[in-house]
Amino acid sequence: MSSPKKPTWTGKAKATERDFNDLNPIITYRHLFAQNLGVRDPLRVIALCDSDAFYAACEMVRLEVDKETPLVVLQWEALIAVNYAARKFGISRMDKLKDALERCPHLKVVHVATYKEGEKEPGYWDNVDTNTHKVSLDYYRRESVKISKLFKELLVECEVEKASIDEAFFDFSKPVREILLQRYPYLATVPPNAPDGVDTPLPPPPPIHWDDLGWVIPINPPPPSEQVEEENKGQENDIDQEKDKVQEDVSSSWKDEESIPTWHDVALSIAAELMGSARAQVLQKLGYSTSAGIARNKFLAKLTASYKKPNSQAGSILRNAAIPNYLKPIAFRKIRFLGGKLGKAFAQEYDASTVTPLDDMQNKFGEESIWVYEVLRGIDRAEVKDKGSVLNKSMLASKNLPKPIKNASEGHHWIRVLAAELALRLNDARKESPNLWPKTLVLHARKGYEAGRSKQAPFPFTREITVDYIATLGDKLWKELVGNNVAMNVSSVQLAFTGIDVTEVGQQSIEGFLQNSRVNKRSREDGINPDQHFQSDNTRAPDDQSNIRPSYTCPRCSKTYHLPDATSGVDSDVALKALRMEHEDFHFAQDLTRESDQVPIVVGSPRPLNKNKKQRKEPVGIEKFFGRK
DNA sequence: GTGGATGAG
DNA sequence: CGCTCATCCAC
Length: 629
Description:
The chain contains 18 helices and 17 strands. By secondary structure, the chain is an alpha+beta fold. The strands form five sheets. The protein has a six-stranded mixed β-sheet. It binds a DNA duplex through β3, β12, β13 and β14. It is found in: Nucleus.
């Protein structure tokens, strides 16, 4: 890799497209002033920030234990999270609880929250039983939301992409540019003597004070280190930390000579400041320590973040100049998306031949090779995109049954449990985006050791999503999938929403859901009455065949409603239920407007069954479905 | 729409 | 390593 070139006005080079791929691009005034260069921005700065041992950290916050207390999170018999205090005892996620306790007798052991019979909310119980309980990760999701909200508040100028429950990408390019221009005002105008005008390279950057900004990955790593990291797979221990200390000492002796700063380095350092102070606030306000990696793109930011953990003081920073040597010893499997089969295949191919032209790779691996080819050279064009309110396109609740189901009622039972969880979670998500709508409901079931099978059905929109509503549809799917076989032997059940998206208000009704519905002969302009999505009998033409179609008669207004004719592929019971719920919504809205015209119709607010009686609160959560076996 | 494959943690 | 969760794609 070429050594860093010092940008200078006297240089003959004029920046071209080609330079965008370079690790040491010539950065011109045009680059600096540009607003929408996106992934081609030579000043692009991306950070990945993730929480250290997130589930364990959540439990530490919840239980108010100090960070020195070794703690593990348990899911049945398996460790799913180990905090750093516990890792010092050599405990890892792979261990059995028994082994962990042998290594650390005073280990704090916390089982994840579970749904339990007779309780409406998930909770932390003394004795959990996989035969009767179901794991709930809700608390972690909520904490995760808290954290990402705070980050977004603190870093309003950034693009933020929540990548998983415990990590997010940040694109610092915009705020960094602004600070760059504030701090170095002379950059704001192209000097009159600049040879190529706005295409003139920027003047040499000032020296950078990296102190306290983070761990700056060395350009030339000390000879005998680094590869060691491969062998002890992610197992941080005292030896590792010693190793790091040594590295730090060694690096300081030659760091200065090696580092000829670039404006991108300045950009990195500014991002490190911003990221660092945001992380400090998250730690202070919410109690979560995080690790960050800062680099020129997502892939490298991710890789950099995992370089050195935990990382409470500062993040890790990967300068462009350090990329080649940093990448060299990194195992394929550590790269995102290459942790599995694909990575293995590539690794084999690379071992076989030292020279691997892109053409060859493409012959063997197709499209994917371009991404891999570039990524191995430190290039990643993936953008940081704000997924907004629709973080997930699907939502799944599942349960593995240690003792397989033998009769239909047990299946019914678990479906209602899973439905309850989905209802809770979707209604929760709707607090953020009221118009969230899962297009389909999918039921998976596995019999014995066979491969799992699934059935799915369209999921009609309702303003209020109830357990009953989901479970009714789930039961239908169960019948299709499992039937009533005596020896059903179902060992795993999963219920999922898929195709979750926000919908237009006009598309929300059951009417919008039903295809080819002819029932609405009148135009929609005839009023905003939400009760007119279906005609009742007294408005129906005499020649119709509504009497043979499924119908529903409202006990309050005595009107009878029918499903439209062409409801192919739609389960009539479910459609009818949707129809009924929507009609009830109508009454609910009427009641509200009658009581006060100030009260808005709030999604998820309880619907009084009878406004004159004392409100009988409908059981929330899964309470009513447990203990009804 | 169904079912399988893949991957993260 | 067992479990939970998520996405993508061939058919």
